[in-house]
Amino acid sequence: MGKITDELYERFKKNLESVNGTCVRASKSDLGKAVAEILKEAGIPDTCIVETPLMKEGGVIAALEEAGIKVYTDHIRLNAETVKGGISEVQYGIADLGTMVQGRDVIDERIVSTMSEYYIGIVKGSTIVPEYDDMFDVIAALPEMPNFVGFVTGPSRTADIECVSTVGVHGPLRLSAVVVDDE
Questions:
Q1: Which CATH architecture fits 6-181?
Q2: DSSP string for residues in 68-122
Q3: Would you call 179 helix, strand, or coil by DSSP?
Q4: Mean pLDDT lowest for which of 4-8, 82-86, 90-94, 161-165?
Q5: Cα(10)–Cα(14) distance, rounded to whole angstroms?
Q6: pLDDT tens, 92-136?
Q7: Per-residue b/e over 102-140, b at no fewer than 16 CB within 10 Å?
Q8: pTM for the complete prediction?
Q9: What's the CA gap between 4 and 87, in Å, rounded?
Q10: Can you give the residue ranges of every domain in the chain?
């Protein structure tokens, strides 16, 4: 994996948007601004965030607070029930599906991605692979398999026996990816 190409980004974005997600691209230095703009535009007043070194570098918390968004970085399990937003870094992306892949054992990352009304996944462009099968090659090459690997493709959708589709039953109503140019 290396620096993301424009073509690979556009394929990831197109496929995420085809399942009702949204996608933006940002540099590390503009990461905080990009995340804050997404939440402000959506009218999300508060968010839980699982901060990582990438988010610290990108000034995400400072940008959110400057935009007037209340940020919770601890007691995620307690706050996730009532807070409208959730932000975490995902480890990989799959362009052909517009899918973000979680591959760590951090429970708070899973909580914010499933319990929030609006979830934002931050993915390094260098970790987006072209196809589904490529992702399994990446996972198989890891020195140690994480206890949890989750594939997140668009907002939560389900249908009952009569094929009546419902959004948000098992996860967020809205979902965005921020692809960060990291290399």
A1: 3-Layer(aba) Sandwich (3.40)
A2: T-EEE-S-HHHHTTT-SEEEEE-SEEETTTTEEEE-S--HHHHHHHHHSSEEEEE
A3: strand
A4: 161-165
A5: 6
A6: 999 999 999 999 888 999 899 888 899 999 999 999 999 999 999
A7: bbbebebbbbbbbbbbbbbbbbbbbbbbeeeebbeebee
A8: 0.91
A9: 22
A10: 6-181
Residue 80 tokens, joined? 């996730």
Neighbours of 69 (CB within 10 A): 20
The two three-digit tokens of residue 111, written as one number: 């909580």
Asked whether 39 and 71 are in contact (CB, 8 A), the reply is: no
φ, ψ for residue 59 (rounded to 5)?
Answer: 60, 40
For residue 90, the Cα-to-chain-centroid distance in whole angstroms is 6
Q: Closest Cα partner for 116 from 47, 63, 20, 169?
A: 47
Q: Residue 161: its pLDDT value, please?
A: 61
